[in-house]
Design brief:
Layout (H helix, E strand, L loop, with lengths): L2 H6 L22 H12 L7 H14 L1 H15 L5 E4 L4 H16 L8 H15 L2 E8 L2 E7 L15 E2 L2 E3 L5 E7 L5 E5 L3 E4 L18 H23 L3 E4 L7 E3 L2 E3 L22 E4 L9 H16 L3 H5 L7 H40 L8 H6 L1 E4 L8 H13 L5 H7 L4 H24 L1
Antiparallel strand pairs: 1-13, 2-3, 2-8, 4-5, 5-6, 6-7, 9-12, 10-11
């Protein structure tokens, strides 16, 4: 017996007009739960439903004010004002400055690309969180490394042949490593591009998946329910504000008579079909007015608030950050919520650095060596001595947190590097800034004494 036969097998009952929705003990699912169980079975292969989920995620990312604001907040929290900054910390300070300046210049003017690297960072984050995956085309040119962001819709999912180890537009080798991607061009034709030219990264929820799953997948249905509830209540309120009442005939038995096949009954009376707010119209004595009952949705606020809390938890941010509602927030709660969501943000920052910045930078260094802008002897020195610094965050209560860090530093519970790293700074950069500031203070002090 197949699994669908198992769920849909009919049981013989004495009275066919009655349905048994629940019976215990029984191995058969109830009629009320059968459809939900079948939908779970259908949704088991993640790659089969990624496109539909992606379209739904894009819809709520545009139509929902909270989800749209979430992506704006996420972009600012992850990248800040200046994006993720390259920090080269080799023993050769001149080399450090030279590479950092060249990288900064390339970020602003990427060859054959309409976007700068800040735009690519933002788009990569949007595609990763909204669509579940990001594709970037990398190409070495004589003018420099070129990048292009590929929309996940342009990866041809129709090319799918498990027998040849091709899944949803991606070809894999025997070790399940991607070897080629089928990308749809502007003419609608699919081109096979080697994986060496494609950066594809996503968060896995299954070891067997070939494509990424949107992080909004778990909030699509709650958001849909909330919008439907709000829409229904708004329509009900508008209906009640525009309609005074309905006119219906009194309940009485009307016996029709027939003459030569034609119905002969009472003459049809003209009934008012339009009601004006605040105005009553005279009606016949055999018609009574019926007014719509007022409705007060006492649970709508609780429902919306609870749904928003669930959505915030699924997105990895606090309720106050998602909604901007600070009514129930105090120092302890906002500190706990901020600490939790900042751990989420740091994890996302590190994920993007590993999969985007590190790989792009290493490809950029190789291309610059081929172009003669970086010496070959410096290749290993550069790759062993670079890091990318994400932005840090301001203190929630600077006085309390600064004193707490001071006590932790004096007691040996924290290091200065750890404290600075929480602010998005490295120790060597911080020391260099202090040295420069002391030099400026010395110059100002000497000028003051000279006067």
């Amino acid at each position: 017996m197949g699994i669908f036969d198992f769920f849909t097998k009919n049981k013989k009952v004495k009275n066919e007009s009655k349905k048994r929705f629940y019976a215990t003990p029984s191995l058969y699912p109830s009629e009320l739960e059968k459809n939900e169980i079948l939908s779970l079975i259908h949704n088991a292969p993640i790659d089969s439903h990624i496109r539909a989920i992606r379209y739904q995620a894009r819809n709520i990312a545009t139509s929902s004010a909270l989800i749209n604001g979430y992506f704006d907040t996420l972009d600012k929290e992850i990248f800040g004002d200046n994006g993720i900054i390259l920090d080269l910390h080799t023993q050769d300070s001149k080399l450090n400055t030279d590479i950092e300046n060249k990288w900064w210049a390339w970020r602003e003017h990427i060859p054959y690309c309409a976007l700068d690297f800040w735009d690519i960072e933002s788009l990569s984050l949007l595609y990763l969180k909204r669509d579940g995956e990001c594709f970037i085309y990398i190409n070495e040119t004589k003018e420099g490394l070129s990048l292009k962001v590929i929309d996940p819709d342009n990866v041809d999912e129709s090319i799918d042949n498990p027998a040849q180890n091709i899944h949803k537009g991606i070809a894999f080798d025997e070790q399940d490593m991607p070897i080629a991607y089928f990308i749809t061009d502007s003419n609608g034709q699919s081109q096979k591009i080697p994986s060496s030219h494609i950066l594809h990264f996503f968060k896995r929820v299954s070891i067997s998946q070939a494509r990424g799953l949107s992080s909004l997948s778990s909030v699509i249905y709650p958001n849909f329910q909330k919008d439907k509830f709000k829409s229904a209540e708004l329509k009900r309120a508008r209906l009640q504000s525009e309609i005074t009442g309905f006119f219906i005939p009194n309940e009485r038995e009307v016996i029709p008579s027939f003459d030569n096949g034609e119905e002969q009954g009472e003459a049809q009376k003209e009934i008012m079909s339009v009601a004006e707010v605040g105005k009553m119209t005279y009606i016949n004595d055999d018609i009574k007015p019926y007014f719509t009952e007022s409705h007060n949705a006492t649970n709508i606020e609780f429902f919306i608030k609870q749904t928003d809390k669930e959505i915030a938890k699924a997105l990895g941010i606090s309720y106050s950050t998602l909604t901007g509602d600070l009514n129930e927030v105090n120092y302890s709660s906002i500190r706990h919520g901020s600490s939790e969501q900042r751990r989420q943000f740091r994890g996302l920052q590190n994920f993007i650095i590993r999969n985007l910045h590190n790989k792009v930078f290493e490809a950029w260094v190789k291309n610059e060596i081929k172009r003669g802008n970086i010496a070959i002897k410096d290749y290993h020195t550069i790759l062993e001595g670079y890091t990318f610094k994400p932005q840090g965050w301001e203190y929630i209560d600077p006085y309390k947190e600064t004193n707490a860090n001071k006590i932790a530093l004096e007691s040996g519970q924290k290091t200065l590097s750890e404290i600075l790293r929480e602010k998005g700074k490295e120790l060597d950069s911080h020391i260099q800034e202090l040295i420069k500031e002391n030099e400026v203070y010395d110059i100002l002090s000497k000028r003051k004494k000279g006067k």
